[in-house]
Each structure stands twice: as C-alpha cells, then as structure tokens.
TrEMBL record:
Keyword Lyase on entry: no
A Pfam family the protein falls into: Mannitol_dh
Molecular function GO labels: mannitol-1-phosphate 5-dehydrogenase activity
Species of provenance: Corynebacterium maris DSM 45190
Name of this protein: Oxidoreductase
Lineage summary: Bacteria, Bacillati, Actinomycetota, Actinomycetes, Mycobacteriales
Keyword Signal (UniProt): no
Domain of life according to the entry: Bacteria
Catalytic activity: D-mannitol 1-phosphate + NAD(+) = beta-D-fructose 6-phosphate + NADH + H(+)
Mannitol dehydrogenase N-terminal domain residues: 20-276
Keywords, comma-separated and alphabetical: Oxidoreductase
Amino acid sequence: MSTEQNTLTRTKDTPTPPIRLVHLGLGAFHRAHQVWYTQQAEQDPANPQWGYASFTGRSPRMANVLGDQDGLFTLVTRSGDGDDFEVITSLVDPAYAANTTRLVDLLSDPQIAVITLTVTEAGYHLRDDGSLNVDSPDVQADAATLQEAVGDPFGFDRPLVTAAGKLVLGLAARRLRDAGPVAIVSCDNVADNGRLTQASVIGFARELNPDLAEWIEREVSFPSTSIDRITPATDDELLADVEKHTGRQDAAPVVTEPFASWVIEGEFPAGRPEWERAGVEFVDDIEEFERRKLWLLNGSHSLMAYYGQLRGHATVAEAIGDEQVRARVEALWDEAERHLTAPELKVPEYRASLIERFENPRIRHNLAQIAVDGGTKQRMRAVPIMKAELAAGRTGDAAAFSIAGWIAFLLRDDASHEIADTRAMELDGARQLDDPVAALVATLDLELADDVAAVDRIRTHVAALRS
C-alpha cells in the first residue's frame, strides 16, 4: 500500500460535522479535551452536528500539519493497561492565527454558537485586579491596529496578537451582521475564568467602541469552567507508535491519560453540544471546583515542576516517586484541603486519584513543559493557598515552599538561565536586584510581598534549596 493511502485523511465515509464552534489556541490539550468531548457528545456519530474550526497560536505549523490531514488526528489514551487509539473527526478546519479574515467570517456566522479558548493564563493580559492591562505592549499594539477596523471589520487581514483583540474584531462583525448571541468559554487554568475573560474582552472593546462593549454585555455570555486532562507533548516515539498500531501515518497525534474532567457554570444563548452525554458536569457554583483543580492538581504540578527539576527529575512520574517531593506535595495538599470544605468536592478521593494519575508510567509529562509561565501560574496556585493560610492564622509553610521552589529555580546558577515566561523581562529584572526573593514575591502578589514574616519564610526556604 502506498504512503499516500496510509496517510490519515478524510474520505467520503468520514463524518464531517458542520462548523458550529470556534477555538483559539490549537494545541494538544484542546484536541484531547474540548474536541474529544464534542465528538463523544454526538447522539449519532455517523451524522455529527458539531464541528470545530480551531486557530493556532503564533505559529502556522499545526494548522499546516493538520490541514494536510483534513483536521483528522489520532488520540492515544495511555494507561498502565495499554494504549487505545481513536481517530478524532470533530476538528473540521485547523486554521492559522494570522488568518483574521477567516476568523471574522466565522464569528459573524449565526451558525457559530460557542467560542472556546486555551491561550494560557498569560494570554488574557490582565492586571492583578482582574481588569484588562491596557499598558501591555501587545494590547496597545492590537488596539492601535483595530482602531478603525472595528467599524468595518470585513476584509481586515492584518495579524493580531491578543485573544481579546481577535474576539473583539470578530464580535464587531457579528454585531454588524446581526448574527445573534454567542458564548465565549475560557478553558484555561484561571480561577473565575468566565468573569476574567469577560473583563478582558469587554475592557478591550471599551477601548475602541463603547457601543460595541454594550452590545457584548447584552449578547455574549461568558461561562466559567474547570478543566482537567494531562496531555504531554507529542514526540517522534508517539508518531512511530501510532503508525505501528494503526497502519496509518499521522503527523499530529495526541497522547493523553484516561481521566478527563470538564465542569461548567453558565448559559449558552445560541445552543451547545450535549456535552453532558460525554460526562461534562454543569453546576450552579463552580468556584469550589476551580479551587480544587487549581490548588491540588495545578498547584502540585508547579511545585514538582521547580522542586522536582532542582532535584534532577524530568517528569511528573519521576518527581512523585521521590519521597521528599511527594512529602512536599502532600503538605501542600493538606494546607489547600483546609479551605476546600464542600462535601461534593470529595477531596480525599480526588487526592488519591491524582497520585494514581501522577504515577501513570505510560504518561511522560515533562516538568520543563509545566514550568513555563510560572510567573503567572504561581500567583494563581501557591499564592492563594498561602494567603488563605495566613488569613486563618497559620504560616502557609507548604505554599511558601512551593513559591520558594519557583524562586530558587529562577536563581539557579547565579540567575544566568533564560526564563521561559511571557513575563521574562520583568522577572529577570526582579532577580537581578539586591533582594531578589522579595522582588520576585512582589511580581506574584504585592500584598504578600508586604508581609515581612511571609517573605522571610519564603527566603529561608530559598536559602535551603540553594545550599
């Protein structure tokens, strides 16, 4: 059989759903989570009703690779019992981020009911108070580019940097075409992500056109979500495994764990897939579920990312197998659990499931991948735990250790390492100061930085980690 025949491509027998969802941030997690859930939710898999058009970040590579495969890819679900290989067909149009003309056409189409995002925590360009950071160079650049375009968005073909800018452009077109309401759903690890996404989008719109901002407030909903599925980066070994087990060449497979979770609070005024058929939970109050995910899963991930690497480990499985790392993870969880009291959270069971997932020998989750953008992640993970403990009259020592691990990681080898963070310039400036610990704590949280005893506790841990 020829290579062409073995390549993963759509045929007349491959179900192709109509595009009714748009996504910003075409990465492995999106494909293992939102796209997978959407396919699982279809009542009739032979006649699917919900397809995705998904836009990459700044690089066109994945749009090109998936475009050659008509959006198809193999999802490899990997457990200790073996691998399961599934062809995902719900991604119909993999698009390049710079194709703003295509984005405008889609977002102004009344058939589009839901827009989802995975642009990382840093992609929302927010201040500490949750408002849009209008001083961000990226926000300022997009605002200048869009000053005239929001009045006439059709035919606009210049690239944009920020998610908020892209959404505002598309919503301006939707308003002009009277295409009706739509839901914008953040699927990033950000507490209260619905409200913050709303603040980012409406804040950007107000900078350009107050009438547009008012229309968005009326017509666009911003559900909040808590998402969870460990999705390591794809490597050449995975490509070879897929071809060996399926007989097909796939240049863009995704590997994931069996566990998946999606909790949603909010309304969908233009409709949505029946995600509950695939196990999605719809709740009235998501805040506690968000905290459970951010503080327990993501919080321990960040702790392991820095402390684990400082101890010479490369993966989550290696780190959790280290007794000292595991003890620090359990201590952090103990602190967090004191503030996660709702019975429906089932925290003891959740903790046990996390250990099982972390120990999965078939999932290679690289600590270096998790460590990226720690300047944003730790302010949402370890910092809230420590502040909650301090408010309760305790020291927050375990959370302080996690913060110290991040700082010690930045200061390793006399602070000569390049910082993998969208806030790299700010963090590098802070670590070069006479008191880098206090300066770096201040980049996370000014209130915490004003607590002398708290900073001293972090400083003590940093000194021990660097000795």
